[in-house]
Amino acid sequence: MSSFEAADKVQPRRQARHYRLVRSKKDGYLWAVLILFILVAFLCVNNYMVLKSYMNLKGQLTTAYKTIEVVKSDKADLDKGREEIEGLNSALSEKNKLLEEQINLLKEGYDKASRGNADISGQLEELKRQFSELKKKNKELVDDNIALQNSLKMAASVGVKPQSFSIFENLEPRDNIIKGKYIGRFLGTAYTPSIEECGNNKGITNSGKPIVPGVTVAIDTKYWPFGTVFYIKGLGYAVAMDTGSAVKGKYRFDFSVLDKKFAHQLGSRKWDVYLVKLGKGNISHLKL
Questions:
Q1: Is the distance from CB of 117 to CB of 225 less than 8 angstroms?
Q2: CB count, 10 Å around CB of 274?
């Protein structure tokens, strides 16, 4: 019987060992379920995150598409605006060309007007100059006329008695008086073609030509050769045709007149003398 008791004693151990194995399997199931739950939760969270990222990406794509549409629309507007600007630029270029042409025409007109004004100014200055010269010449003529009148008055006051003389007929009409170069104030006296003063009763000068009262002057041939033409203010044109013992020096002359009283009336005085033409030492053709 003891063997049976031993057997009985052994069996409970087996049951207990069997119990422990069943309990271990249950724990494994629990852990498996827990791990599966965690995996499912992780997958859900992951899917949620993926979905959220997808939604964000979708929103960004939608925004990007809208931006692209706006950009396309803006680009179309910009292209349209560029075409309009190009059209305006072309129109402005044409207007600019027209304005440049008009400016060039105005400039040409201004240049012509300026040249015309310059020409008019030049002509005006020339007219002023000519007027000044005419005024000066007129004053000189007035002064010469007064001087000649004074000389004639002196002649009229004493009376004129003709002696031997020649009439000068070669003084041509002219538009103005050619005085020549002013050479200074000469000491002048007067003489007649009488035998006492001329040295002969024919009125022949030392040049071999007859005395021409009012034209012939005696000079010093050392300075003035025969044929030299002078203009003496108050006496008119005179020609160097004679010499005299008392006529010495560069600034000295003796003027021929018709009457002795007139010669005395003229006396000895200073005269303004101009050199019209220098003579060559002879008188081949006397012409003033």
A1: no
A2: 18
Q: List C-alpha distances in Å: 64 to 57, 59, 78, 199.
A: 10, 8, 20, 139
With the CA atoms of 231, 237, 239 and 244 taken in that order, what torsion angle do they form, in degrees rounded to the nearest 10?
Answer: -80
Judged by DSSP in three states, 174 sits in coil
Query: How does pLDDT run across 212-236, given as a tens digit for each residue?
Result: 888 999 999 999 999 999 999 989 8
Dihedral of CA atoms 178, 183, 185, 186 in degrees, nearest 10, equals -90
- Residues 252 and 262: their CA atoms lie apart, in Å, by 19
Place of tokens 């008392």: 246
pLDDT, tens digit, 9 for 90 and up, residues 49-70: 888 888 888 888 888 888 888 8
Segment 71-99, tens digit of pLDDT? 777 777 777 777 888 888 888 888 888 88
Asked if 240 and 224 touch (Cβ cutoff 8 Å), the reply is yes
Query: How far apart (Å, rounded) are the C-alpha atoms in residues 197 and 163?
Result: 11
> Which residues face 216 on adjacent strands?
239
With tokens 């009229």, the residue in question is: 156
Backbone angles phi, psi at 55, to 5 degrees: -65, -40
On the 0-12 / 13-18 / 19+ scale of CB atoms within 10 A, 82 is: exposed
Single-letter amino acid, residue 222: K
Question: Taking CA 272 as the corner, what is the angle to CA 267 and CA 274, rounded to the nearest 5 degrees?
Answer: 130
Q: Are the CB atoms for 110 and 103 separated by under 8 Å? A: no
Query: Residue length, the chain?
Result: 288
CB 1: neighbour CB atoms within 10 A?
5
Count of helix runs (H) and strand runs (E) in the chain: 3, 6
Residue type, 236: G
